[in-house]
């Protein structure tokens, strides 16, 4: 079996690739498991050294849209496509054309490439909680269910929702076996901040653990829906293995979310690394970021995901301790317990 991952050198793409390679096989769409022979990582940057050293990994470097236009992706030879590449929320608000090119145009080009390949590969599209947005004109319900109407309030959410509909229609036409999954905000991400409005939901923990100051632009009582990196990848892989009967409707599946508040996240940090860590958080409001974050829902009832055997993380403290265990080189403060 050959697999292609867009955004394959990024944080989630690399973690997905490592997980699949460690498994060694994959049971696509309910079929018997097949050995994984090749994983194609499409990205602007080279993959991490451990992935580059794996003989099963084939990096393809360059702009996704340009590679698709040139016919450079081996779509005729892959059985599964994981489409993770995207411009993130803050970037899309700052640069409308970037968001449209990266999140809408590239998604349609990729679907067209799969259509031309002619064998209906499994196509997992990483959508987002940002397809839901609250507004005075159309309030969100207290709890988001699988049938709740998406009402995006920013360019990123709108582009992701359009992508879901494209995947659904290409599935209806038999061009791909589509699996739309709505990811929650992933925390704690290692590395440096990115352009997402939600980037601080990792930075306010990651930077203090490294002995550096971090800014939190929203109030402590702000509620958020989170998922750990590991739980997010489990959900993405489970989408690829679900049979059409298990998956059900062509609409997107909301992955399970841990509901917490930003203040509770800071409390978890204090339990893990003490007051020295929380003293490094600067609570500096940013109205633009707060507007985006508070428009997103924080409570979900993901019955379809639960039927697939997926569950939310146990607690944010557990997520934080997983980050410390997985990234010891990035933690400079003493950790309790």
Write the layout of secondary structure elements.
Elements: E1 2-6, H1 11-23, E2 25-26, E3 34-35, E4 38-43, H2 49-52, E5 57-61, H3 64-69, E6 80-83, H4 89-94, H5 96-117, E7 122-128, E8 144-145, H6 155-172, E9 177-183, E10 185-186, H7 200-209, E11 214-216, E12 223-227, H8 229-241, H9 244-247, E13 253-254, E14 258-261, H10 262-273, H11 275-278, E15 281-283, H12 287-295, E16 300-301, H13 303-307, H14 316-326
Parallel strand pairs: 1-4, 1-6, 4-5, 6-7, 7-9, 8-16, 9-13, 10-12, 11-15
Antiparallel strand pairs: 2-3, 12-14
Question: How would you portray this structure in words?
Answer:
This protein has 337 residues and is α/β, with parallel strands linked by helices. It has a domain at 2-185 and 227-254: Rossmann fold (3-Layer(aba) Sandwich), CATH 3.40.50.720. It has helices at 11-23, 49-52, 64-69, 89-94, 96-117, 155-172, 200-209, 229-241, 244-247, 262-273, 275-278, 287-295, 303-307, 316-326, and strands at 2-6, 25-26, 34-35, 38-43, 57-61, 80-83, 122-128, 144-145, 177-183, 185-186, 214-216, 223-227, 253-254, 258-261, 281-283, 300-301. The protein has a seven-stranded parallel beta sheet, sandwiched between helices. It has a three-stranded mixed beta sheet with strand order 10-12-14. Strand 4 (38-43), helix 2 and strand 5 (57-61) form a beta-alpha-beta unit. Helix 7 packs parallel to helix 10 (262-273). The radius of gyration is 19 Å and the shape is globular. The N and C termini lie far apart (43 Å). The mean pLDDT is 96.
């Amino acid at each position: 079996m050959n697999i292609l991952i867009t955004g394959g050198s990024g944080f989630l793409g690399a973690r997905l690739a490592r997980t699949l390679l460690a498994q060694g096989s994959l049971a696509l769409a309910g079929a018997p498991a097949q050995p994984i022979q090749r994983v194609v990582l499409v990205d602007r940057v080279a993959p991490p050294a451990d992935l580059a050293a794996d003989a099963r990994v084939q990096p393809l470097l360059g702009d996704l849209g340009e590679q698709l236009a040139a016919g450079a992706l081996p779509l005729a030879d892959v059985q599964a496509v994981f489409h993770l590449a995207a411009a993130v929320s803050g970037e899309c608000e700052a640069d409308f054309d970037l968001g449209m090119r990266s999140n809408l145009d590239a998604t349609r080009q990729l679907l067209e490439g799969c259509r031309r390949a002619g064998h209906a590969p499994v196509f997992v599209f990483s959508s987002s909680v940002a397809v839901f947005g609250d507004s005075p004109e159309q309030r969100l319900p207290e709890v988001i269910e699988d049938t709740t109407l998406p009402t995006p309030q920013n360019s990123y959410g709108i582009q992701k929702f359009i992508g879901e509909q494209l995947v659904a229609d290409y599935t209806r036409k038999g061009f791909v076996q589509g699996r739309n999954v709505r990811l929650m905000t992933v925390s704690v991400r290692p590395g440096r901040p990115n352009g997402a409005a939600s980037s601080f939901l990792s930075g306010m923990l990651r930077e203090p653990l490294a002995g550096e100051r971090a800014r939190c632009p929203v109030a402590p009582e702000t509620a958020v829906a989170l998922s750990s990196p590991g739980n997010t990848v489990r959900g993405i892989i489970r989408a690829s293995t679900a049979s059409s009967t298990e998956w059900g409707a062509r609409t997107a599946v909301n992955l399970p979310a841990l509901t917490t508040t930003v203040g509770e996240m800071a409390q978890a940090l204090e339990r893990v690394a003490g007051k020295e860590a929380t003293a490094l958080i600067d609570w500096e409001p940013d109205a633009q970021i707060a507007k985006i974050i508070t428009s997103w829902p924080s409570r979900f009832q993901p019955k379809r995901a639960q039927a697939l055997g997926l569950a939310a993380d146990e607690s944010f403290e557990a997520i934080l301790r997983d980050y410390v265990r997985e990234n010891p080189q990035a933690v400079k403060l003493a950790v309790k317990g």
